[in-house]
Amino acid sequence: MPGHFEPLPGGGAAVALDEVEISIIRSLAVQLLELIGPGPGEDVSDDPLAELFAEGPSEPPSDPVLKRLFPDAYSGPDVEAASPEQAEEQRAYSAEFRRFTENDLRAGKRDNALVVIRSLDTLAAAREGGAVLKLTPEESKQWLSSLNDLRLAIGSRLDVVDEEDTDLLYRLPDEDPRKPMVMAYLWLGGLQETLVETLMK
Questions:
Q1: How far apart are CA 141 and CA 14, in angstroms?
Q2: Running DSSP on this structure, what letter comes out for residue 174?
Q3: pTM (2 d.p.)
Q4: Helices and strands (H and E) in the chain: how many
Q5: Which of 30, 54, 192, 195 is 20 to 30 A from residue 14's alpha carbon, by CA?
Q6: Is residue 146 within 8 Å of 32, Cβ to Cβ?
Q7: 64-82: pLDDT as tens digits
Q8: What angle do CA 91, 69, 21 make, to 5 degrees?
Q9: In angstroms, rounded to a whole number, what is the distance separating the alpha carbons of residues 182 and 112?
């Protein structure tokens, strides 16, 4: 079990984590939580109707990590090859889609990151040098989503766009200042992969 998820009887997943691994994942999840924030224009009142009709931003975020986490709904090669009129229309569609979905997306990503932090806090309270994290099926899905968000965030900082970029990371010299971030990116990828395999069993 060390370093990879395994299935639990009755569903869910388990992984053995040492103190350093717990600390790294928790720190990254907290940073992700702070980066996502409440979202511009998000209503934080207790009025359920106000929350229901709250509108999100229509413009994409300026931070490259948030752009990766909350991409335009209409983007890619087709948009780039479109005429100016078509491109403007696609931007309008993206703005409208973002306005009605980004707040919910932010809330979902925050909830997932909080599940990661809280489960690690519970684990930390009971551990002596390390412990086995046991997740319910629902927690496992939230962990999977949050691991994906963490990798997208780190990958954005490392300018990882495709598989070729990932291959280059393996060849970075040890003295490269990006090396610790690269190691975290690759390690989280391994955790994510074994959690996917576990949930498919």
A1: 13
A2: T
A3: 0.81
A4: 8, 3
A5: 30
A6: yes
A7: 999 899 888 876 656 566 6
A8: 175
A9: 23
